[in-house]
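--- STAGE predict ---
source: upstream dedup step, 1 unique chain passed
mode: sequence only
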Amino acid sequence: MFPKLVPMPSPNLLTERDVDKRPILECINLGINFGGLAAVEGFNMAIGRTEITGLIGPNGAGKTTVFNLLTKVYQPTKGTILLDGNDTHNMNTAQVNRAGIARTFQNIRLFNDLTVEENVTVAMDAHMHYNMWSGIFRLPRFWKEERVAHDRAMELLSIFNMADLAGAKAGSLPYGAQRRLEIVRALATNPSLLLLDEPAAGMNPSETAELMENIRNIRDTFQIAILLIEHDMNLVMNICEGIAVLNFGRIIAKGTPEDIQSNPAVIEAYLGKQKEA
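--- STAGE serialize ---
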């Protein structure tokens, strides 16, 4: 049973569970132009602090562009992004990550020649507390931080039943395990908002079912928000509490899964306008 969505003062919605707290993310009239073409325009969205939200739409609707705006791969040409109430206007990609946004990619981007554990610990670099000299001369501070990173990596891998793969090369893992590892690596940065770009791409039904359970566990275990782009409508409708539908760079509908499934504008965007008899 999904929680009820409640209107905010702005044109956004939050779950009842999070409505009394400041949204972890709020986009206000966000947009970007490429060569005079508006790729995203008037994008308004709020995400509660423990909400699982879906961003869906036809191919080319602008979904990944939104992710690139949120993570500052692209700088918006208009609008505002508030992360936990803080304007990210002057931040770059690394600063946004340190501030609390982590993401995965549609195409897996692991360090294939590094081990599973090394792929996780490399993501913790910004949280390490030793200096260059401690690292060069292997001083006690270095070894203490390395032990902390190892313990944290193993803890995260255990949540996804991957601890026994810690020493394996990332590139040797089956596809589904590589997808899980990419999520673990994102979680290693201690995000407050996790962006998942088509996490079920290439997965079979049993792997997708496991992914749904993992996403719920991530939200419940880490008490963070999750925004996902996904074409698997079974996954979206069964896991997302709120859904925004993007078409030609604009949001055409927002609501619960039930609202979205019956929305005429959404049906037309996906299936085309039906001719009158």
